[in-house]
Amino acid sequence: MPKPVIEVEKLAKSFGDNAVLKDITEQVNPGQVIVVIGPSGGGKSTFLRCLNLLETPTSGKVAFEGHDLTTMDTKSVNSLREKMGMVFQGFNLFPNMTVLENIKLAPMKVKHADDASATKQAHELLQRVGLDDHADAFPDSLSGGQAQRVAIARALAMNPEVMLFDEPTSALDPEMVGEVLNVMQELAKDGMTMVVVTHEMGFAKSVGDRIWFMADGYIQENSTPEKFFANPETDRAKDFLSKILM
Amino acid sequence: MKKKIGLLLAMLAALVMMVGVFGNPTQVQAADNSLAKIQKKGVLVMGTSPDYPPYEFQATVKGKSAVVGMDVKIGEKVAKDLGVKLKIKSMSFDSLLVALQTGKIDMIISGMNPTPARRKNVDFTHTYYKGGYEIVINKTDKGKYKNKDSFSGGTLGAQTGTTQYNAAKKQTKNTKVKGMTSQSDLILALQSHKLDGVAMEKPSAEAYVSNNKQLAAIPSDFSMSSSATSSAIAFRKGSTSLVNKVNKTVDQIKKENLVKKEYLPAAGKYLKTNTVNTSMGHYWKAFLTGIEYTLIITVCSVFFGFIIGVLLALARLAKGNFLKSLLRWIATAYVEFIRGTPMMVQVMFVYFGLGLFVNLPALTSGIIAISLNSGAYVAEYIRGGINSVDIGQTEAARSLGMSNGETMRFVVLPQALKNIWPSLGNEFITLIKDSSIVSIIGVTELIYQSNIVRSDTYRGVAPIVVIMVLYFVLTFTASRILNYFERKMQHA
Question: What pLDDT digit, counting tens, does each position of B445-489 carry?
Fold first, then answer.
């Protein structure tokens, strides 16, 4: 049994009186693609953001490679975040920098890579997501699909061990969803450990190793895609699937 | 006599007293070693307000601008008799008393008359000159006016707060009295017939008349006490030994009638050379100095103001533990306080108030005050700019492993700056103009220089037009440069 990359123990998160995450204990093993699905407002995004401490958990433990992030000093949290790339629904590219500069920024400022090697790496990543010809473009000239692929390349530039995807295709026009999912699929094939919050059931089925079904602040089901989509155990999951599948 | 006990002075006196509470200046009742101290220092610093020919004024001596006049001659004689060097510090008349009390200068020779009110705060020597008052009129009105009583139904002008201003108010009937701060403005008003006559001291009146063929002088016939018509040298309170020593010099000056025999004629010579060429081009050097200092003050203040602004903005955005809350509170209080008090008062506070603890030169004080002031405004712009950057930008940067500081520096601030660039540009252009405030502490920037040129040339409007154009050239160039960078920042 390999050592888990991420371990979550009794995780809870409230915003004021509103308990969004109630009691979550799960783990992510190396190379696994976890797809988190569930109804809106079920705490999926909050859960993902607790994994790299963009949200501070109210209680419980989040450990990365055995190190508990919730008890760490800020500096160590910063350096562990490098190892968890994150892709946002809204891309969050830096609008005042070119595509290339977007990708080079963190390696150069955080890892102190020299310009030449950072540029070389950025071009390689852009080739990987099929956008090397847009290296000198500014983000606002890109389509949504292109922007999200750049965002993925930017996250990969830090050589993360885990990639977190927060509804990466939700803000895209339908015809652009495919290009982004393809890149993600390639990543999964290369063995990247991934936690993906998404509504793309097709992707969940074909790429996911595990489905975590989340609702009402709990992970209600943790099973394989085959089993989950064919034979959901809980009523909550059955209800959810009946609404989204035709 | 110049006798401006204005509101400013009262305000400053209060300020000096306030500062005195938490760091008592030593001068007041200290043992009298004033004479020994000056002699040990070897330098006697004379404060004067060089806009009052022939007492003191700015003139070009051997190609350089210098303060000359009969008071300067007296200062030189005093220093010589004490066996020390004379150093002259120029500042506005309003500032002289405070400068003396705060140790910026050692004595005042600036046509100052030893009124009882002033005697409370400083020690005066014997009087060295007794003047009188005349009224300057347009030559075309000669014969129409004889003395102060001829202006019934008309308007008399005088320098605000001076003895002659009070006399004109009290000793005339049916006459309007209009006060202005500057002698040259009054003459200008006279020539444009807004005034019928200007009351001023005899030597000044004579200087104006001899330099301007359209003017004439008539006797004023004001009845005055002698303390209101004579000038004396002021020293810090309690400087008995120094005053006694200088009194010997003053007595000698009076006995030998040096003022009339030597000093006034010598001052008159400069006045003559001054009037040979009163074209603005002749004074290009004065204006150039003005531009130079205006730019020095502006550039330095923009630079330091920006740094202060960024730090304040970050402090105001600090959230978290007690220390951070305290920091935020201090920054907020600072911003509110600076925005709630006039910059002029801040400039005077830094120069005179802080002057009690550290002796800062006027230029440095000006830059410090304006930077501190500008910082408060810049902080608010920057805070707004930071808040305008989408939180997703911060999250993206943090998720890449960047620290809080790195995120601020490389991601948020550049975008905030772009958003607030037009407001910042506005602030910088305002600063070019606001730098003029430091003229009150004697920094030779554009306004100060133009005042010098005005009192030098007896021309009221031309220097104003010149600096108006110069200011516009400066601000317009600055706004072009800012626009260029704004365009550079707009991508795609």
Answer: 898 888 878 776 767 788 889 999 999 999 999 999 998 888 887
pLDDT band at B1 (very low <50, low <70, confident <90, very high): very low
ipTM of the complex: 0.92
Residue B403: list chain A partners with CB under 8 A: 74-75, 78
Whether the CB of A122 is below 8 Å from some CB of chain B: the reply is no
Which CATH superfamily hosts domain B2-126+231-276? Answer: Periplasmic binding protein-like II (3.40.190.10)
pLDDT at B344 over 80: yes
Domain with CATH 3.40.190.10 in chain B: 2-126+231-276, 133-223
Q: Is A110's CB within 8 Å of B402's CB? A: yes
Residues of B340-378 as b/e, b for ≥16 C-beta within 10 angstroms? eeebbbbbbbbbbbbbbeeebebbebbbbbbbbbbbbbb
Taking the Cβ of residue A134 and every Cβ of chain B, the question of whether any pair is shorter than 8 Å is answered with no
pLDDT at A166 over 50: yes
Q: How many helices (H) and strands (E) does chain A have?
A: 9, 10
DSSP label at residue A139 = G
pLDDT band at B3 (very low <50, low <70, confident <90, very high): very low
CATH superfamily, domain at B133-223: Periplasmic binding protein-like II (3.40.190.10)
Q: CB distance B401–A78 less than 8 Å?
A: yes
- For residue A89, the chain B residue with the least C-alpha distance is B392
The answer to whether domain B282-490 has CATH 1.10.3720.10 is yes
- At position B320, the amino acid (one-letter code) is G
Which regions of chain B carry the CATH code 1.10.3720.10?
Answer: 282-490
Provide the terminal-to-terminal Cα distance of chain B, rounded to the nearest Å: 66
Contact residues on chain A for B401, CB-CB shorter than 8 A = 78-79, 81-83, 106, 110, 158
Higher-confidence position of A59 and B268: A59
CA-nearest residue to B406 within chain A is: A109
* Residues above pLDDT 70, as percent of chain A: 99
Output the CA–CA distances (angstroms, integers) from residue B71 to B48, B95, B108, B254, in the order listed: 9, 17, 10, 13
